[in-house]
Amino acid sequence: MSLSRRDVLTASAFLLAGPRLSLAEVSGKPALPASAAGRKLITMCWNENPYGPGPAARAAMTSAIADACRYPDDEMMQLAGMLAQKEGVGTDYIVTGTGSGEILCSLGAMIARDAGEIIAAGPTFLQLTDYAHFAGATVRFVPVDAKLQHDLPAMRDAINGHTRAVYVCNPNNPTGTTIPAAAIRQFVDSLPDRVMTIVDEAYLDFADGDGVQTVVDLVAKNKRVVLLRTFSKIHGLAGARCGYAVAHPDIAAEIAKGRMATPNVFAMRAARASLGDHQFLADTRRRIVGSRTKITSELKRLGLAYAEPQGNFVFFDTGMPLPQFSERMLAQGIRVGRLFPPYDHWCRITIGTEPEVGAFLAALPAAVADRAAPQRKMG
Question: Which CATH number does 57-275 carry?
Fold first, then answer.
């Protein structure tokens, strides 16, 4: 592949400008409507934690620079030990990855062997299902119920002789809804022994619903349960890429074989430090949950339907095609979430900093002033 001098200069400018700028912006093409020119773009679409990483994690990453020349094997063992203590299991139950996404991909490849099948809610987080499909698996989506929650009875009924796994994202992305731990435990008990249950708890740290808690205890009781957690959300380390799974040692070893990389030394040092930064984690949760309440209060005032949020985002009905709503918000300098079919009028808005949430709430009434009637009623 040959690159022109212009290509090289454009790419260099992109890198120097930082990750928040697109190639279109660097090349001089307008990225915002004229009405928003000169404003700093507010990004509220990727479910990132705008307050992180915390002070302890930042210090740990800085101090790790001198050791960047070393392979991270010892770092992996130390992090696994801390995670095992946190989750109440042995270290052989822990698998770390470059974000929980890498572990989801490894699980997807495992499920796809010999044309396996996976069942998931629709809509949900797609990294597992997309990779499993790419690797040759059959993916069957079961629509969420009227409250935009996992329809566990329907998912149970969808299981057949080819089903190898069921994916439960709790809280669910993009709807933000949750399932009580008791319901998940009952669901797992109802499944055939050969079917693996993959429970993704990436957003659980933000949940406050009745009976909503981790089901990590199921891993020790049921060999076919895999639990996933990440440092990308409440820990604010999405860019550093570090996540982990808790699974029976046999499954954990198989997941580890499917990894294509391992977390870097900066991510693992930051993760270890962040685990003990209780003040930062508590403050982050307080701010996110507080802003989440402000958003739902305004949605209620405006008469906009929304799914009961338990993550660091809110899924709501804009009353118009999402591209139209997105364009109106972008004109106010705010980038909102992408489309999640079949909810073509719904928007997933990430909870930003308090000033960012204030800007969103100020822009929202005008953006939806001429909206149509709600497209889907909430149960």
Answer: 3.40.640.10
